[in-house]
Amino acid sequence: MESSRSPRTGRRHSLLRTAAVTLSLATAAALAGCASADTTTPSSSGQSAFKPVAQKEGSQITVWADSTRLPSVQAYQKSHPDVKMKIVTYDGGADGSTYLQSKVQLFDRTGSGWPDVVFGTPTDVTWASEATKPGARPFAAPLDEKLVPRSTLDGFAKGSLTPCQFNGHTYCMRNDIAQVLLWYNKSLMDKWGYKVPTTWQEYEALGKQVAKDHPGYLVGSVGDTNSHESYFWSGQCPAFSLVKPDTLRTDLRDPKCTRMATLLDNLISAKAIATQGFFSQGFAKNSGSKVLMAYGPSWYGQYLFKAGFKTPAKQIAAAPPLTWQGESTTATGNVGGGVWMVSSHSANLKASTDLVTWLTTSDENQATAPTYPAYTQAAKAWLANPANRNYFANDVSEPFEQAANEVWTGWSNTRFSDSTAWSSVVLPALTSGKSLTETLPAWQQEIAGEARTQGYKVVDQ
What are the residues whose beta carbons fall under 8 Å from the beta carbon of 56, sequence distance 6 or more? Predict the structure, then answer.
């Protein structure tokens, strides 16, 4: 997951903090990481003041990686023995950690110590693309400034580099994505004669039917710290939409927010959607076998159903993201995906960018990666790996590839985690019996407050 807003990275959620599943908390954090999108796109006229520091060909590079990505860095070192590397393991920004930012601020004050390459979250890019103090270099180097070929950057899934892009330049390369799609138990669906829904309206109708025909069975959950990314992000709700680099639009009164809240409230009332999280204490043991459908990220198959719920092989299948009946635009959310950044202070940019390119784009590395690669050709190699497909009841390639190019870029990457307000305001309200619809104003108020604290202007229209 990109740490826990990944088996992910991204602003890290504490999604699996209390998980009673076999998936370790460290791996879950790596998977669910947070990867939000940013509305800023690179412009052909974007000017960069980037000037490399004096380069020392063949000099040692220091690489900071989380434990999940450590084996990949070690594999590169083994296959490239001429590259001098020092590898440091750190949390990779998991669970909203500000460790990397604090360290960079320290290095900016002392004038030394910066790592050459780091694995982090999209939230890290929001500060790493800007100077931490007047006169300092932004930590992240603009990779589109003659460091990484445009043809390579163009090879990533549509929109997947959006969280890397600020002020017309690209400051990171995406390691993995966690595109949201529909998971379902094919064995039970076939046995009960249910048709896999393709629209949100069909999803709601089927959920109500399941509640009536098979009480106790579920079609989803809204109780995890990233559930809003699966539902509200997929529904194109403007909860976190940067209309300008310093201006955030959060408008939960928007019809695209209220209709999703109403749909979920209806299914919660019918007891077809749980307010207890999939990864909460006791869920796997008590209810894991009764999850008929789950709307969630691409890592759900291996890390929720297989590792967590222990669902036998050849039962779970994947379907493309849902659409709203009568609307032609398909959009989905993202629950994870980490990034690699190259330091603007690196004295060996060639070795640093070669490493990051290999980590993110090579079939050699990505075919055996724990989660879905953001680079399109590497993703095909990943899907061809039997370890990533043999567990499922259908060929997941088509729904995975479709969803990877349909992640809505209107849910922006900001300097604060999108999980905090959901966890502190919405989840407690649901636990107390309140509806999502009546909680929307409080959720919006909390988001706006966090945004202002981080220096954003806030608008609601």
Answer: 347, 348
Element (H, E) at 404: helix 397-404
Phi, psi at 454, each rounded to 5°: -90, 10
Q: 154-183 burial, b for 16+ CB within 10 Å, e for fewer?
A: ebbbebbbbbbbbbbbbbbbbbbbbbbbbb
Closest CA to 299 of 217, 215, 208, 404: 404
Q: How far apart are CA 223 and CA 10, in angstroms?
A: 19
**What are the φ and ψ backbone dihedral angles of 342, each rounded to 5 degrees?**
-105, 135
* pLDDT per residue as tens, the chain (461 positions): 433 344 544 333 333 333 333 343 334 444 554 444 433 344 444 455 789 999 999 999 999 999 999 999 999 999 999 999 999 999 887 656 789 999 999 999 999 999 999 999 999 999 999 999 999 999 999 999 999 999 999 999 999 999 999 989 999 999 999 999 999 999 999 999 999 999 999 999 999 999 999 999 999 999 999 999 999 999 999 999 999 999 999 999 999 999 999 999 999 999 999 999 999 999 999 999 999 999 999 999 999 999 999 999 999 999 999 999 999 888 999 999 999 999 999 999 999 999 999 999 999 999 999 999 999 999 999 999 999 999 999 999 999 999 999 999 999 999 999 999 999 999 999 999 999 999 999 999 999 999 999 999 999 98
Question: Please, are residues 13 and 5 in contact by the beta-carbon 8 Å criterion?
Answer: yes
Rg of the chain on CA atoms, in Å:
21
Q: Which of 176, 214, 174 is nearest to 193 (CA)?
A: 214
- Give the number of C-alpha atoms closer than 13 A to the C-alpha of residue 76, restricted to the C-beta side: 27
CA distance 82 to 85: 9
Q: How far is CA 325 from the centre of its chain?
A: 26
Q: Whose CA is closest to 367, among 348, 385, 352?
A: 385
Rounded CA gap, 31 and 95, in Å? 11
Q: What is the pTM of this model?
A: 0.90
